[in-house]
Design goal:
Beta Polymerase, domain 2, seven-stranded mixed β-sheet
């Protein structure tokens, strides 16, 4: 799904097409969406990499675009707390691409973001800040859950130890 945003008085608002867009948001892309990204000039291999659930973070550049591929806590997976890849492409404007819908991250971002003199760099930096807040809230949740399990370490059961190992797996995925 493609969604386009422009700045109006420092706030993000939807617009009809890429011609007005400061940000193109692409989530759970269809074949048509992928074709559109190709038409924008994004590297097809990097687009495919960004959709790989096991992709590792990195920065690439080419043909006037800088690609920042990172991982974000999966927003539709409260139980497992896995991370999912997301790509930021910086060129004529900002493009984000994720294999999963990121509404729980981006909708509050769209609703709250105000940038006085909007620029591509400022938009990217406030997006990174939103990702950091997402990580912080997830790590804080895991911290609270860990404290609940380890209230009295002298009475830990095997189930509690298995829970702690699961928390470690989640935190390792975040690192």
């Amino acid at each position: 799904m493609l969604t386009y945003y422009q700045f109006a008085d420092g706030a993000l608002e939807r617009c009809d097409d890429v011609k007005c867009a400061a940000w193109t948001r692409c989530e759970n892309p269809s074949a048509d969406d992928l074709f559109h990204l190709h038409q924008l000039g994004l590297d097809d291999d990097l687009v495919n990499d960004a959709l790989d659930p096991h992709e590792i973070p990195r920065i690439e550049q080419g043909d006037g675009w800088v690609y920042f591929i990172t991982r974000l806590p999966g927003v539709d997976d409260n139980f497992n707390d896995f991370t999912t890849p997301i790509m930021f492409a910086l060129g004529e404007h900002v493009v984000t691409l994720s294999r999963e819908r990121m509404g729980r991250v981006w909708q509050p971002f769209v609703d709250r973001t105000r940038i006085q003199a909007p620029s591509q760099t400022q938009l990217f930096l406030v997006m990174v800040e939103a990702m950091l807040r997402s990580y912080q809230s997830r790590v804080a949740l895991i911290n609270r859950q860990t404290r609940a399990v380890t209230g009295d370490v002298t009475t830990l059961r095997s189930r509690d130890i298995a829970t702690l190992v699961e928390f470690e797996r989640k935190l390792n995925d975040y690192l």
